[in-house]
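Final report, Chapter 2: Outcomes

The project's central promise was a pipeline that accepts a single protein chain and returns its three-dimensional structure in a standardized token representation, suitable for archiving and comparison. That pipeline is now operational. To close this chapter, we reproduce one record exactly as it appears in the project archive, with the input sequence first and the structure output second.
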Amino acid sequence: MTKVLLSLFLAAIFVCPVESKGNNIKENEEKISFHQLLQAVSEEYVKNPSIPDTSQPKVVNPADVSILAGDNRYWVTIYASDKYERTKALEAGLDIVEISGKQVSGIIHAKSIKTLEEKGFVIALKMTLSEYAQEFFKDFPPNDSAYHNYDEMIEVLQKIADSNKDIASLFSIGKSIEGREIWTLRINSSVKGTQSSSKPGAVFMGAHHAREHLSVEVPLLYAVWLLENRNNPDVKKYIDTLDIYIMPMVNPDGAEYDISTGKYKWQRKNMRVNPDGEIGVDLNRNYAYRWGGPGASHSTWSDTYCGPAAFSEPETQAIKKFVEERDNLKTLISYHSYSELVLYPWGGVDEPIANEKDRKVFITMAQEMAKYTGYKPQQSSDLYVATGDTTDWTYAAKGIFSFTFEITPKSSYSGGFYPGIKVIEKTVTDNIKSAMYLLSVTHNPYSVLGK
């Protein structure tokens, strides 16, 4: 896929020829600059004033959303006054995207609308996904050329790993259902690859959901920033004493499918072909903690379909194996979009964490990280109960202090899943500050209690 912006900074930064090394990995000793990457985003606005200002919704030509013309999903707004009703709506097949007072909006398959109505929900607004997208759609290249597709992400990871071989290594934790590697950058001054380490570990993950492309940029550019600033005293301290893992694209198949035609397909799930021909499993409903319970759909066509069993998907199986093999992991952030929230367990049950000390750690850490981003900290289930998610399982299974970041924007009126390139710089830099806070307490999360 052609990337206008990518060609700009590649021409300036990657000046030597690159040879393929297999598995889509490319090797080159040239360094990649964090500031040049972000500067390229700003410069593209100056050179290409036609790129839209995505701080306001933009109505585009219906041809831009023609890819959704035959899609069987709808955007609906319903009345749901509390988290209990929102959970019931999830179970009926509604993928809740936004909450505003007593109304919620989201995406639902045509087959599930009757179920939603049978459960007593009043539909205040209903439009096809293509009709909705006409109002809020942001076209792919050139407008969103700053975002990294799968191959471009690999190239960036390999560049920074090759430029920092003494402390960085790149390996795959497993393959997706279509055979793509799930690449992970490891930063550790003592060991490489999959070697074990006794240093406290931190994990940063992006793109469980395909259409959430900004959730790739945040951990990817954080990796670039960390290695570029490796000699900064604070950064060096964490590199010397911690075991840091960054996996920017957990769902590579879905992410590639979402942009495969140059027009967004609003894909959320992976690319599993289900027995009835429906596509995809929601990876963030496929983890084992309370799998298949409230807030997860068992309808294959639903965007929140939890799969036939816990860990049925190779992507979640790979993460399960990765986590279970590393007893040193202490903290984790899973980046999603959108809503500007810092969420902590439980999400799959409507009750607080029973361990009072752990609960206080979660609350304190969430509040501190929210200060850097301006996001709202809260327990996940205060939105609605949704079983089978990443952070519930990593905490329940391994005691990892795990957070879901719902990053920028705040609503569909500010860009929704496709907010454009203007938001990248601020979103990345704000989240670098919160990620640094996470590293600062990874050695002992209980230290935040000051005892």
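Archive annotation: The chain has two domains: 4-44+142-271+281-449, 74-136.
This record, like all others produced under the grant, will remain available to the consortium after the project formally closes.
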